[in-house]
Amino acid sequence: MISVIILGAGNVATHLFRAFSESSQVSVKQWYNRNIKIIESFKNEVDITDDISQLFEADIYVLAVSDDAIAELSSQLPFENRLVVHTSGSVNPYDIDKKNRRGVFYPLQTFSKSVTVNFSKIPICLETLTKADYLLLKTLATSISNHTKRVNSDQRASLHLAAVFVNNFTNQLYRIAHEITEAKGAEFDMLKPLILETANKVQEVSPYKAQTGPAKRNDKKTIKKHLKLLDSKEYQAIYKLLTDSIQKTHGR
Amino acid sequence: MISVIILGAGNVATHLFRAFSESSQVSVKQWYNRNIKIIESFKNEVDITDDISQLFEADIYVLAVSDDAIAELSSQLPFENRLVVHTSGSVNPYDIDKKNRRGVFYPLQTFSKSVTVNFSKIPICLETLTKADYLLLKTLATSISNHTKRVNSDQRASLHLAAVFVNNFTNQLYRIAHEITEAKGAEFDMLKPLILETANKVQEVSPYKAQTGPAKRNDKKTIKKHLKLLDSKEYQAIYKLLTDSIQKTHGR
């Protein structure tokens, strides 16, 4: 049984609390947040506190806080030589105060408070400074996920950057599609099967092979039509830049 | 029973042939292609021809050919006053030669020859010039899909344009993510659950509500880190443009 204490109360912290609580191999001993009101509704399930001097002893402390808060919070911890990990995609483990053993526990997924997630399919990127800590952290990760992986900070930074492309930027393309269709009284809902199929296709086939459409075919007539239909200069610029990018990739 | 003749042998033609053949309400009477070799392997399932003067009589002729070929092929048809439809997202029904009754049968999906598709979930956009033809075409569409919809040419053009954003452009973002991760020895595979979750989320929640990440939070430190990590000017430009777009959408 691995004992864990969670620090922070954002989406990652909340989803991790749920996942750890459901695992028979993990005991969440305590949940800390600066503002206790946010976690008060959990007080019947776990010991909660807003007093950092009152933290219990545990095998692993998980700092699920914003990137900027990691260094300071870690320096306030009232103990030494315990395993302290953060959950950030872009912060170095060395940002954690060196009085403790340090590591990273980064779940590669988008979390919303209202949407439940199945942790078993979420890749968790692990990094520690020693092998013994790696084994301990890996045991924690495999207790909730079937996809854990040792990832160094450079690789993690590239995954975090790539995640912005496939999640935030892709979602903005969906948003633009929403605007384009609604402007003409067409239904965004009609695009939903295509959105799913596009994501499904690259589960099996590489994005390079999966590409189709006017940019790849260099269908100038359709590209011209589309640019004319877009009355926003911003959307025209996005259309041009991504069309050029596809044509570079596919050697046009 | 509706009788249909398919003209063309690309991905859409092939997938439509399969779907119509499996429907008990449709009889595919003939399949025409200029180059008969491409459809020769189907000769035991359907009458095939490369001679346009030998086309049989049928209720509906489906021109599943490239946008540029629609007008010419329709003018070569050796009959009049029959229902002839094309399958294009961006071509007007009036591009079909006026000696026949005209319409559009546009399945809103991405088709690859090797990937089987479940037509029942694919939206089919229908347009005809008369009500009687609409009822006939709708019967054909509902024989293979549960999502048929009357869509005028302006709406269809906007759906086709929006499809380029959610399919081709999104796929290019996946491609860029592939390059970014592999360049650092990280695995693109680790992004696949996130890709799926991003597409799944907007099946229920609007893309506006689904947005998260550094651009929306205006997390300047992370944005700066990411731009530094991207060594390609092209990818930096895409990152900046889509970050600006997210910030405009979310009022930053």
The N- to C-terminal Cα distance of chain A equals 57 Å
What's the CATH topology name of the largest domain in chain A?
A: Rossmann fold
- Mean of residue pLDDT of chain A? 96
Q: Strand fraction band of chain A?
A: 15-25%
Query: How many discrete structural domains of chain A?
Result: 2
Radius of gyration over C-alpha positions of chain A, nearest whole angstrom:
22 Å
- Return the structural class of chain A: alpha/beta
List the chains of the largest interface with their residue counts.
A-B, 92 and 92 residues
Q: What best-fitting shape of chain A do the alpha-carbon axes yield?
A: elongated
What's the arrangement of strands in the largest beta sheet of chain A? 3-2-1-4-5-6-7-8
The helix-strand sequence of chain A is EHEEEHEEEHEHHHHHH
Largest sheet of chain A: 8 strands, mixed
What is the top-level CATH class of the largest domain in chain A?
Answer: Alpha Beta
**Poorly predicted spans of chain A:** none
Q: How many E strands of chain A? A: 8
The oligomerization state is homodimer
Helix content of chain A: 40-55%
Task: Considering the chains and any ligands shown, give keywords for the structure.
homodimer; 252 residues; alpha/beta; Rossmann fold; N-(1-d-carboxylethyl)-l-norvaline Dehydrogenase, domain 2; 44% helix
State the gist of this model.
Chain A is an alpha/beta fold.
Walk me through this protein's architecture.
Chain A is α/β, with parallel strands linked by helices and 252 residues long. Chain A has two domains: 2-151, 3-Layer(aba) Sandwich (Rossmann fold); 157-249, ProC-like, C-terminal domain (N-(1-d-carboxylethyl)-l-norvaline Dehydrogenase, domain 2, Orthogonal Bundle), CATH 1.10.1040. The first copy, chain A, is built from nine helices and eight strands. Chain A has helices spanning 11-22, 70-76, 131-142, 153-183, 192-204, 207-210, 214-217, 220-229, 233-249; strands at residues 2-7, 26-32, 48-49, 60-63, 83-86, 101-107, 123-128, 147-150. In chain A, strands 3-2-1-4-5-6-7-8 form an eight-stranded mixed beta sheet, sandwiched between helices. In chain A, helix 2 links the parallel strand 4 and strand 5. Chain A is elongated. The relative contact order of chain A is 0.08. At the A-B interface, helix 4, helix 5, helix 6, helix 7 and helix 8 of A face helix 4, helix 5, helix 6, helix 7 and helix 8 of B.
